[in-house]
Fold each of these.
Amino acid sequence: MGILDGKRILVTGVLTDASFGFHVAKLAQQQGAQVVLTGFGRLSLVERIAKRLPEPPPIVELDVANTEHLDTLAARVGEHVDGLDGVVHSIGFAPQTALGGNFLNTPWEDVATAVQISTFSMKSLAVAALPLMKNGGSIVGLTFDASVAWPVYDWMGVAKAGLESASRYLARHLGDQGIRSNLVAAGPVRTMAAKSIPGFDEFEKTWTDRAPLGWDINNPEPAAKACVALLSDWFPATTGEIIHVDGGVHAVGA
Ligand code: NAD
């Protein structure tokens, strides 16, 4: 018996086997779910990584900035499953000028890209998947605690603050359809997205010094487990929530 037995879950954001998306897909399958992946850009790479899952799932192409991809998503996913019970948003991107301490000089166009891909996309993905979510369901995304200003995270931090708000608005607008929207605020993990942030290793030190439970920067599984729990029926009355999976860093001062 798994906690996702019989559930059909769409998982975005698989790029490498370190991706949060990969670990959510893996645990979801182990917990009994039928998984469909979306892939962005290098689809052959996503296919190669997907073969490392317990059961290689179907992959549909999705660039969240591509209107045609979004408009046809439900039909293309619907070729593999007859509905969806859960959707995982594990997508983030900001141009280099928006990260690494350049906050005061980032041009609007680059901020706009960060917000479109990292923030607005949660709404885009939810609306695109909606025709398949007839019986309610769970939307889960990943944030990096945006209640404070971090070093080097800059406009990605602003985009994440927007994502946290967007998830609350999704909770408000989709609640009457029985659809929950929640986020997992993960501590830092060395994924492709993290490596593209200049100065990301600063976070490593902060988490080593401050996490009451300790923190493994190479382990995406604790946050993936929380995503799977939120996809399950074990959070039936929770929406608009942010669950911190950060070793406890958010809860302690210096
Ligand atoms: P990752 O690089 O493995 O995944 C990021 C994904 O975003 C990739 O699969 C990439 O293909 C996808 N993506 C980028 N642009 C896209 C587009 N236009 N359309 C569709 N997909 C697109 O890194 P990750 O760390 O697993 O990131 C997943 C999520 O976790 C992101 O939202 C990230 O901000 C968040 N997060 C990461 C950390 C961390 O330290 N790694 C911490 C907290 C939250």
Amino acid sequence: MSYKRTEISPEEIKKQLNICADIRAGFEGQSRLALVETFGCQQNEEDSEKIRGYLCEMGFEMTEDEFSADLIVINTCAVREHAEMRVFGNLGALTHTKKDKPQQIIAVCGCMVQQEHITEKIKKSFRQVDLVFGPDELWRFPELIKTVMSERKRVFAPGSGDGCISEGVPHLRSDKVKAWLSIMNGCNNFCTYCIVPYTRFRERSRRPEDILDEAKKLVADGYKEITLLGQNVNSYGRDLDCGASFAQLIRQVNDIEGDFVIRFMTSHPKDANEELFAAMRDCEKCEKHLHLPLQSGSDRILKAMNRHYNAEKYLALVDKVREYVPDVVLTTDIIVGFPGETDEDFEETMRVVEKVRYDAMFTFIYSKRVGTPAAEMPDPFTREEKQIHFDRLIETQNRISEEKHREYIGKTVRVLLDGKDREDGILTARTIGGRLVRTAGDESAIGSFVNVKINDCNTWALRGDIV
Ligand code: 5AD
Ligand code: SF4
């Protein structure tokens, strides 16, 4: 696989920051409001923090109200049709806000707009949208906004496929305790169902020294949890010339002084290896959690998905990580109803699920994505047939999750208090394995590590008292 990386120079980013300053000066001290709405994964959340960072430099303040916003950015996800339909619904509703406020600027970005048929649809049917830009064009968001503002024309800037990498784009982080840290972007795997390689292009890694600088700043700013993000973190560094690996990176972040935890996602089973498991075992700050997407337990379907492993190899990997980290928390993603998946294929998935006994699972019904190889495969089974499998899988996993949660009762676990339930005021926390814990406590304790004795649980969460 050839790697292509286009590094955006620091001068270019400086130019963008100067444009921000120009826009700010143009507001002449008047306040302006911006709303950024995010769909999809953590990678998108992190991108939105950069968009907000730029907006802040331009002098915008953030709002949640679409009617008072002078600028609205919708950061979209293309991974399943459901998310796309929600975006179109939201965009439709924005005709009203723009009628109320004709000067309002509406921008749409993210993975969805990297697909030609979507951009065409927005061009023709959503005239209220002023700006469209792909994930790879985010670094020049200020210049794009400036063109919209000064020329009052619609701007369409989907990415070119170069696979950019940039340093120095400011962040406005949405949390004070937990931070996303993107270590790479793009994907080289071309699973046949997945749109991501077409929307985020080829894998490119940030340099270790840039990642470590960012991690050190986060720790110095008081962040207690750093999540290293990449579509496939286990191939981190393969496009760099310094021999960096993901396991080494975890060790280096672990060496930063301070009381914080390191989380990471996502690991592809074909690339997760003992070097990673050893780092998880050795690094006291590294979470004991591995998200290892299975997608299917049927060798035939795994082959059609282009996943490069079979059920046996996957199970051997699970045994291996449990050898290194005996109490590792395992979670997974499973797609139900991939084209041609039969009852027998599904039973194979159930077999793996019962064998592994995941702590938690994200389940999806296959969603056809235009332009991917799976979209061309015969898909004879109905939605209703797929739903029966889907419901059975969820039922099984709920039982296993609850059984696994029960094993915590009576135990005392160290957790990071990370927030408060808006409805009942109960504090929320995560164990080192990433399990959700709910406990009564004072809000001022959010951001600290405490010990909680677990006394109750359900499928989703553990409950306990701070000791
Ligand atoms: N349909 C359904 N689920 C999908 N995923 C990715 N592409 C699709 C698709 N076309 C799921 C995979 C992946 C997770 C992020 O989303 O399980 O791991
Ligand atoms: Fe959505 Fe996937 Fe893109 Fe994330 S990488 S924004 S989940 S399509």
